[in-house]
Specification:
The protein is of the alpha/beta class and about 325 residues long. The protein contains nine helices and 14 strands. The strands form two sheets. Strands 7, 8, 9, 10, 11, 12, 13 and 14 form an eight-stranded mixed beta sheet that branches. A six-stranded parallel beta sheet has the order 2-1-3-4-6-5, with helices on both faces. Strand 5, helix 4 and strand 6 form a beta-alpha-beta unit. The longest helix is centred in the last third of the chain and has 16 residues.
Amino acid sequence: MYNVFIDGKEGTTGLKIFERFAKRNDIQIITIDDEKRKDPAEKQKCINASDFTFLCLPDAAAIESAQLCTNPNTKIIDASTAHRTNPDWAYGFPELSKEFRSKIQSSDRVAVPGCYASGFNSLCYPMRKSGFMNADYPVVCHAVSGYSGAGKKAIAVYESSEKPVEFESPRMYALTQGHKHLPEMKKVSMLDFEPVFDPYVCDYFSGMTVTIPIFTRLLSKKVSAKDIHSMFEEHYADSHFVKVMPFQGEGILETPFIPANTLSGTNNMRIYITGNDDRVILTSQFDNLGKGASGAAVQCMNIMMGIDESISL
């Protein structure tokens, strides 16, 4: 039996993690009184009494909670942005490489990737690792997400009966190119420069697509769209949750659309390679609340436990 504390259980990610544990008989949840959930002394008791603590908090609060841990046997899984570029923390995307998985297995501190960053790194990291893309490639990334990742206030507006008309349309944001996921995108995918990032929040609850367009003439070697597809198939060949879909290039698509919401409620991720030998579109499709948040956090915990990574997922 593992004792688990979810610091920030009231937020979207914390609630989803809690829900995923509902049918498990190997986990006991440590609870904290509502009036004491921001009391450092009470939180410290809960953290240090746990085998695993999930931090589902704003960055500053996550840093404070991590510092409250004095029990060397407590493992912390942080869902905030706070520790994703910290080399002392494992980056919680085991499918990226054997090295990523091994560090998660052996670490007592794991930073769960951001939702957009999960999609971005699922595409850009293999391109860099394979040598197809140089570190100075001018990467551009487009993404759409359901509103569940927009925070409590925005969710309330989207679900209001008096929703403003502009909320019925996709809304582009992060216009100053200062999105909080950019540092981990650059670092994890081994880029010299941060990408141009163009995210949209849309009027549906959850699910996302992240897309990177590629000009093959700018790559480090001459490769075709099928070469790129084959590389991705090899890279993710042993993955349980990440699946590379059949090649859909040369203008012939099995389905003419890639929807953003069809993996909602799962921890699955699908990689699509489309286009032609001049211009290739790399697309990652997944749930921003699943592989992009709570699902990834639970998957990492399972790996740290040394059990089947798909339990609860």
